[in-house]
Amino acid sequence: MPDILLIMRQPGNLRVLGAALESHGHTCIGAHDRASVDQALSQCKALNLALLDVSGFGESVWLVCKKLQQTNVPFIALSARQQLGVSSKTLHYGAMSVLEKPIAKASLLQLIDNITQAEDNTPAPSARVLRRS
Where is the signal peptide (predicted)? Predict the structure, then answer.
């Protein structure tokens, strides 16, 4: 059963990130639009986390954020530097953190571990924006 939902418009990014996470013991399911997000959320009741790449979603990204909140799936927003303003808004819509692309794999894996372990030992960590230096 997948434990991480990857929400990305670009199939190549989905494939690369999925492979990287699966090589570290995670199981992933991908979604590329609102309909596939809804389908994944209805099929996978035990998701620990979602990674949402905000690129290419336009205003529909807020509906995706709202759906993740309604289903109690914690999520991290992934964003290009030039979209950090938009991505920071995802914190208002429930994102636990924002990571700037390109994503540092070690930082992402550590953040995933922190969030999933915190979910086991609530309360959740505070929201924050992480920038790549």
Answer: none
Residue 76 domain flag: yes
- Helix (H) / strand (E) containing 108: helix 105-120
The answer to whether position 128 is within a domain reads no
Kindly report, residue by residue over 21-64, the tens digit of the pLDDT. Answer: 999 999 999 999 999 999 999 998 889 999 999 988 888 999 99
Nearest to 30 by CA among 16, 19, 40: 40
pLDDT at 123: 47
Helix (H) or strand (E) holding 92: helix 84-92
How are beta strands 49-53 and 4-7 bridged, if at all?
parallel
Number of structural domains the chain divides into: 1
**Which residues form the domain of 107?**
4-117
Peptide bond preceding 125: is omega within 30 degrees of 0, i.e. cis?
Answer: no
